[in-house]
């Protein structure tokens, strides 16, 4: 789960990491009220989970009430990479002496957490060579290491103590809230020597949420994602018109690639995991049926213990109850496939021996609909 | 990470062992519906499931397999050093810790949704104890026609001389199925797991078979996310890996910054993208199949050279 900036900053504050004074506004009334407390000038920042806000013009300075009225409305309606903001943060500007980059991230190949630090703040860290990468164990960060990094970054001496505390607190957040990433870009050193996180990018490990009930309030799912998640499905909505359903993330991704290679476009990704029964396929179709753009469903199931006939019954049930109105193209490798073929006779669902045949038939059908 | 770990020795032993190919395996969570279903299937495949552990159910039996309250008791009674963990993710850490404390040398961690921090802690602890973890979020490990510790179906696998390593369960089955149908049986099938942290990662996996005469080729089934394939390509070049390798990567057409089912399958910028993986593989002269069906075709070309 990627937190919004203001949510990340709430966690920062909980762990003693300071941020500039700010207030969140969902509408212009909120914003006008916030001004009473904040005073001009300040920055308006769109709350988005996608990167590249600055370049997209979703961060704007605001110096008076006229600007607030126009710019606030503009930002609230501005999509960035297909995403509308979930609120606008009004944040005071600060006098910056120096900006740096600091993050702690899950280093997958090394199977540990690593610190990345750079004396250039506000940069795209992937694009710069000017950075330190230091691996740390789960036991924590020593004070010596923190001072060493401060020196290497050229942080003024009188801010070393602050930097040490901040780095140790950032690691406490990583472990305490089970984050995969906590990034401060930029981290500002201001005139009194203190450090302020001007931005916050925090990604929480979804699999650890069961022991962090306090973070559940940040969980944001569309109705459809909620329905999928309640059934234990992994679901991602995509742009095209063929819905893909399968058992196993890798298999569904592989099917998605093959559909794309066959000049089809996938409209959704749905992995219902280990168990393929009448109920799982029925519930999966129920989720998909809420996407009006879908013109065909492609089912790809593989596994020794899949009962093909049960899956067929689930599909028939969905047609019978009028949940399903589009054709189904299925490849189901498992037991009882002859029986399944018989069951599906006369319905709009067809069973194929290979996934390639199923994909070709689905793509052809969608093309002929146009 | 130690390169001396011999997974064949642990799983099946030497030809002279009295229990050759019948090494005792303990199943943690044997009485749960998941654990019991797969205990039956493992047993019918040939695995010697010698004991189960479910706290509170000690003294009972599951289909004649003795169930113990603790790993210590189970090990004392069976002499096993292999454990298959079938408990739900929130209980994984304690189960794995107990297994390592009791002297288990190979942990096969089946559960999906294990928190990352728990995986890191168990990985670090296993290293300290000289033990090895496979997974979590893995279908397990199979020596075709001999034994398996995991949840993979039997039917896609056949005994032979290639090896399949995979980040995905169902794709491991699918690719092995195509290999078996084309006459390429497997000496070993190992799911490294779909999580960001793998107790045995791709490089560790290659270390397991690089010196083996009974392995003539390797198939590696990857997916978007992380840099496991990039690191592997570098390893293949750096260590002059000599056996033919064919790769497959799922998720070429997945959007960025969306988690595609597996916790580990997510692309940030160029990090974790299929392009990055394919480019690195090409530097290591590893052909990448466009579909599971193409894997045996590419393998045939390499083996004929």
Give the quaternary arrangement of the chains. heterodimer
The largest sheet of chain A is:
6 strands, antiparallel
First and last CA, distance of chain B: 33 Å
The strand count of chain A comes to 16
Structure class of chain B: alpha/beta
Most extensive protein-chain contact, per-chain counts: A-B, 52 and 63 residues
State the order of secondary-structure elements of chain A, H for helix, E for strand.
Answer: HEHEEHEEEEHHEEEHEEHEHEHEHEH
The count of β-strands of chain B is 14
Neighbour order of strands in the largest sheet of chain B: 3-4-2-1-5-6-7
The CATH class of the largest domain in chain A:
Alpha Beta
Give the CA-based shape of chain A: elongated
Number of domains of chain A: 3
Task: Note the beta-strand portion of chain B.
Answer: 15-25%
Q: What is the mean pLDDT of chain A?
A: 94
Radius of gyration of chain B: 19 Å
Low-confidence runs of at least 5 consecutive residues of chain B: none
**Cα shape of chain B:** globular
Name given to the CATH homologous superfamily of the largest domain in chain A:
Succinyl-CoA synthetase domains
Instruction: Supply the number of helical segments of chain A.
Output: 11
**What is the averaged pLDDT score of chain B?**
96
Poorly predicted regions of chain A:
none
């Amino acid at each position: 789960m990627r937190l919004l900036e203001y949510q990340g900053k709430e966690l920062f504050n909980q762990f003693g990491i300071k941020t500039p004074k700010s207030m969140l506004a969902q509408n212009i009334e909120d914003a006008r009220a916030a001004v009473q407390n904040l005073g001009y000038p300040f920055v308006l920042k769109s709350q988005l989970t996608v990167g590249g806000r600055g370049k997209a013009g979703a961060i704007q300075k605001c110096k008076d009430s006229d600007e607030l009225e126009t710019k606030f409305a503009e930002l609230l309606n501005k999509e960035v990479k297909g995403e509308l903001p979930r609120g606008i943060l009004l944040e005071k500007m600060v006098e910056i002496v120096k900006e740096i980059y600091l993050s702690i991230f899950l280093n997958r190949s090394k199977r540990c957490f690593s610190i990345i630090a750079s004396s250039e703040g506000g940069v795209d860290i992937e694009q710069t060579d000017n950075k330190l990468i230091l691996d740390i164990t789960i036991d924590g960060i020593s004070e010596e290491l923190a001072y060493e990094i401060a020196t290497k970054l050229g942080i003024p001496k009188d801010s070393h103590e602050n930097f040490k505390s901040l780095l140790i607190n950032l690691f406490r957040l990583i472990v305490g809230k089970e984050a995969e990433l906590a990034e401060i870009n930029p981290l500002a050193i201001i005139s009194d020597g203190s450090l302020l996180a001007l931005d916050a990018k925090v990604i929480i490990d979804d699999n650890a949420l069961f022991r962090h009930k306090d973070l559940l309030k940040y969980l944001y799912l569309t109705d459809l994602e909620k329905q999928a998640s309640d059934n234990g499905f992994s679901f991602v909505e995509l742009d095209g018109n063929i819905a893909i359903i399968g058992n196993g993330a890798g298999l569904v991704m592989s099917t998605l690639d093959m559909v794309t290679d066959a000049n089809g476009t996938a409209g959704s990704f749905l992995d219902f995991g280990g168990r393929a029964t009448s109920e799982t396929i029925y519930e999966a179709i129920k989720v998909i049926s809420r996407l009006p753009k879908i013109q065909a469903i492609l089912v790809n199931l593989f596994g020794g213990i899949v009962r093909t006939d049960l899956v067929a019954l689930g599909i028939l049930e969905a047609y019978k109850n009028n949940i399903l109105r589009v054709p189904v193209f299925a490849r189901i490798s498992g037991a009882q496939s002859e029986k399944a073929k018989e069951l599906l006779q006369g319905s709009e669902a067809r069973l194929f021996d290979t996934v390639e045949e199923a994909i070709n038939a689905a793509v052809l059908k969608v093309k002929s609909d146009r | 990470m130690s390169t001396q770990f011999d997974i064949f020795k642990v799983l099946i032993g030497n030809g002279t062992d009295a229990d050759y190919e019948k090494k005792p395996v303990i199943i943690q969570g044997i009485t749960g519906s998941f654990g019991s279903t797969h205990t039956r299937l493992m047993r019918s495949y040939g695995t010697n499931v010698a004991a189960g552990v479910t706290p509170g159910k000690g003294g009972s039996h599951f289909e004649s397999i003795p169930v113990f309250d603790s790993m210590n008791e189970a090990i004392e009674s069976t002499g096993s050093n292999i454990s298959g963990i079938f408990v739900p993710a929130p209980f994984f850490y304690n189960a794995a810790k107990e297994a390592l404390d009791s002297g288990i040398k190979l942990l096969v961690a089946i559960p999906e949704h294990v928190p990352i921090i728990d995986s890191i802690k168990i990985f670090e602890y296993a290293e300290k104890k000289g033990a090895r973890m496979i997974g979590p979020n893995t279908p397990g490990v199979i020596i075709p026609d001999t034994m398996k510790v995991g949840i993979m179906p039997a039917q896609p696998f056949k005994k032979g001389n290639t090896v399949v390593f995979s980040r995905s369960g169902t794709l491991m089955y699918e690719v092995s199925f195509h290999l078996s149908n084309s006459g390429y049986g497997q000496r070993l099938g190992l799911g490294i797991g779909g999580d960001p942290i793998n107790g045995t990662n791709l490089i560790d996996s290659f270390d397991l078979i690089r010196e083996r005469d009974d392995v003539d080729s390797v198939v590696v089934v990857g997916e978007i996310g992380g840099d496991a394939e990039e690191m592997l390509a570098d390893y293949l070049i750096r260590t002059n890996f000599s056996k033919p390798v064919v790769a497959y990567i799922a998720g070429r057409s997945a959007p960025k910054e969306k988690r595609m089912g597996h916790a580990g399958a997510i692309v940030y910028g160029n990090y974790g993208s299929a392009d990055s993986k394919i480019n690195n593989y090409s530097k290591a002269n590893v052909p990448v199949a466009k579909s599971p069906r193409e894997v045996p075709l590419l393998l045939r070309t390499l083996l004929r050279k």
